[in-house]
Amino acid sequence: MSAQTHNSQMLDPKGRAVGGTEHSWCRAVLGGTGIAVLAILSSKNPDVSRLRNALHKLQNSHPILRSRLHHDPSGNTNFSFVTSPFPFTQIKFFNHSTTSNILENIYNQENQNISPLHLILEHELNQNAWNNCHNNKPSFSTKNDMFFASVYALPGARWVLVLRLHASACDRTTAVSLLRELLTLMGTEEEETGSQQGQREIMMDKGEISLAIEDLIPKGKAKKTVWARGVDMLGYSVNSLRLTNLKFKDAKSPRSTQVVRLMISTDDTERILAGCKARGIKLCGALGAAGLIAAHSSKCRSDHQKKKYGIVTLTDCRSILEPPLSNHNFGFYHSAILNTHVIKGGEKFWELAKKTYTAFTNYKNCNRHLSDMADLNFLMCMAMENPGLTSSSSLRTSLISVFEDTVIDESNDQQKQVGLEDYMGCASAHGIAPSIAIFDSIRDGRLDCICVYPSPLHSREQMLELVDSMKCILVDAGKNGNENES
Known about the structure:
Layout: H1 3-10, E1 14-17, H2 20-31, E2 33-42, H3 48-61, E3 67-71, E4 79-83, E5 91-94, H4 96-106, H5 116-125, E6 147-154, E7 158-166, H6 172-187, H7 194-204, H8 226-242, E8 256-264, H9 266-278, H10 283-298, E9 307-316, E10 334-343, H11 349-365, H12 368-371, H13 373-385, E11 400-403, E12 407-409, H14 413-417, E13 420-429, E14 436-443, E15 446-455, H15 460-479
Parallel strand pairs: 5-6, 9-11, 11-14, 12-14
Antiparallel strand pairs: 1-4, 2-7, 2-13, 3-4, 6-7, 8-15, 9-10, 14-15
InterPro entries: CAT-like_dom_sf
């Protein structure tokens, strides 16, 4: 432990108890869902000093990143954030030999065509630094940091920088902003002088973690009568028992998170987006529809055999909170809307895409993403405590999850300056989660989706077939996007 870190612990720290949504993530991470990972492939040897300075500046600018998660089962509040006045993140380095050993240990026949970046991402998604947070006595271990950094050396003078965060500190908006801010800091030509850096740290020491999402909801938006809450919770519970899942391959073995990647050419992406625009829907509607059709087809359903599937759509609430937050307010400020759809086979893609998106927007317009937040958090925790409530104790909450808004990223000079070749970002999902969680982005005009799933509950072969089917459905729909559908 550095002297600076030791001194920071001697000062009076700041912090707060976790909110309801954050508490759900604290519970979920223990089982393996909610480990957020951003893996960056670079062709340039990272400047250790500059990288460390950049990470510390990020911690200075965002108090949640220099916080630790404390757990005290004897208190009224189990989990709380305690914020250090100084940055303390240390970078863990893996040389070529160590990295090679790690990759060899996870390499097998089904992974033979997977890139090292992909394998390292999966490796990090299954490194759970927080499973010691929940024990029979108060925990004040420095192992409960919210933010970890690692660098892996690859052959050919290439490197993978990995940032791993607790989901309560990092939703997708936070991850995107984190990447962009880090690249800006790493690409800065002029280093701050010692006095300038000290002044910056003193200025930022006054910062506190933003309030939890529940404390920022506009007055009346989350209001619900006791009767309405009871009816909604009963509805969610009963409907969840009727939802159809993908076929489970192995529901008994220990689980981990794996990912498959869905990439579509720029021309096909442009056509898909044009089809969405023509119908007044967002890409999430198209992704959800493709997932429903592909999943129903994979189960070899006969024509007109109806099955009900669930779609969870995650929406960023920052702009509607009081006071509004910006993308630079790090933390978890998304909420979820669960819609169910009956599929019988033979649905027309664009009609289904419109239907799924309209169902989501109708719920959102009624503020269900705010009023149902506590209900869904409660049911999430109940399912974790009683996995038998879900099919085969699988903890599957829905077929698929998507984000309302797609991340748009264009290559720039900052990325070139640090040698960025590729990156992948997502969160783990082998505890309570959907069967497939889609983290979508459009990079230089090309659709790029990181699709996360629990293994061996689902196999890589099974998920590759599903994702390939989704890709074909999307590409075909793009080519036929301007055709009228009766």
